[in-house]
Design goal:
Helices cover about 35% and strands about 15% of the residues. The chain has ten helices and 14 strands. The strands form four sheets. It has an eight-stranded mixed sheet, sandwiched between helices. It has a two-stranded antiparallel ribbon with strand order 2-3. Helix 3 runs antiparallel to helix 4. It comes from Roseateles koreensis. Transfers a succinyl group from succinyl-CoA to L-homoserine, forming succinyl-L-homoserine. Pathway: Amino-acid biosynthesis; L-methionine biosynthesis via de novo pathway; O-succinyl-L-homoserine from L-homoserine: step 1/1. It is found in: Cytoplasm.
């Protein structure tokens, strides 16, 4: 293993037969969760960090799969020996959420009660349901308290929910490029993307598996819509501007004329080949539903009254989908409760995607924060 690289990793699987009650009132009688771990759990079992994934990501955070090209984990630039989340010091856990299409029980799997693929019959899941399921994995690993829960975007919502639902089971919550709830504009983007999928003739009410087809047209459009919201105007202008694919205008209403069009179609094509349509519907709904303050009359300060851990929140100046103002709402609520909170607003040009990139200020911040965590549990060692 070279410095900074995890190397080859293998997913693990955990099966649960104790029913999981869901917020919708339904339950999963049995289910499986796929996960990966990196580094070593220390003797005191106090160096574990749970990393929660965002919309189209998975449990595969870092390292590569044997015999597979381009199989690096989605946060490989952050996690590994000597990296900001240093696996020489921390035991890192990535869990694939319920309803995903990357191994955990979801719409593509067989419903044991009917013997048929779930498809659209898979129950609606929420951020709270994911956190409850994650907590069962953490408990099964013999970990009573996590050093930290970390997540970006939708993963940041899960990290925040951990601090609310299991306040005694984490010491630090690190929420990046996230929000306490989606704005109406964000819900609108999600709805347009869902409609693109649902109205695809190959969707068949969510039971397209039985028809031997995939609603690729809808998935392509959904991904194109989403991708536009992940990038800033500055980055799109810098990368593509008004560059043309050909020297002369074709004066066509249907052909690809601009490089940005070509890029978006490429991203849509890739996405439609690996992501599941029902999973997309489920995950965007979980995003829409997340609003912990709703149970407290919309008062975010009251919402965080039960939290006890320390917090780090980070936002990016050009992220217009999860703007810095939304992170500042959370910071205010935490300060209202006299909690220990650090906040960084990083001037970065990359839009929402900045949390996946390796901006040196961003990575320097996370490195320093995790070094403080590591120092604290090293000093606590007998």
């Amino acid at each position: 293993m070279t410095l900074g690289q995890i190397g080859v990793v293998r997913p693990q699987r955990m099966r649960f037969t104790t029913p999981l009650p869901l917020r919708s009132g339904a339950q999963l009688a049995q289910y499986e969760l796929v996960f990966e771990t990196y580094g070593q759990l220390n003797a005191r079992r106090d160096n574990a960090v749970l990393v929660c994934h965002a919309l189209n990501a998975s449990h595969h955070l870092a390292g590569t799969y044997e015999g597979e090209d381009k199989s690096e984990g989605w946060w490989d630039n952050l996690i590994g020996p000597g990296k900001p989340l240093d696996t020489d010091k921390f035991f890192v856990i990535g869990i694939n959420n319920l309803g995903s299409c990357f191994g955990s029980t979801g719409p593509m799997h067989v419903n044991p009660e009917t013997g048929r693929i779930y498809g659209a019959d898979f129950p609606v899941v929420t951020v709270q349901d994911w956190v409850d399921a994650q907590a069962r994995v953490v408990e099964a690993l013999g970990i009573t308290q996590l050093a930290a829960v970390l997540g970006g975007s939708l993963g940041g919502m899960q990290a925040l929910d951990w601090s609310l639902r299991y306040p005694d089971r984490l010491r630090h919550c690190i929420a990046i490029a996230t929000a306490p709830s989606l704005s109406a504009q964000n819900i609108a983007f999600n709805e347009v993307a869902r409609r693109a999928i649902i109205t695809d003739p190959d969707f068949h009410g969510g039971h397209f598996y039985a028809q031997g087809v995939v609603p690729k047209r809808g998935l392509r459009v959904a991904r194109m819509i989403g991708h536009i919201t992940y990038l800033s105007d500055d980055v799109m202008e810098q990368k593509f501007g008004r560059q043309m694919r050909a020297a002369e205008l074709g004066y066509s209403t249907q052909d690809i004329e601009f490089q940005i069009e070509s890029y978006l179609r490429h991203q849509g094509d890739k996405f439609s080949n690996y992501f599941d349509a029902n999973t997309y519907l489920l995950i965007t709904r979980a995003l829409d539903y997340f609003d912990p303050a709703r149970e407290h009359g919309g008062d975010l300060s009251r919402t965080f009254a039960s939290a006890t851990c320390k917090f780090l929140l980070t936002s990016f100046s050009t992220d217009w989908r999860f703007s810095p103002a939304r992170s500042r709402e959370i910071v205010k609520a935490l300060l209202d409760n006299k909690l220990d909170v650090s906040y960084a607003e990083i001037d970065a040009p990359h839009g929402h995607d900045a949390f996946l990139l390796d901006d040196p200020r961003y990575h320097g911040l996370l490195r320093a924060y995790f070094e403080r965590i590591a120092q604290a549990f090293e000093e606590a060692a007998p």
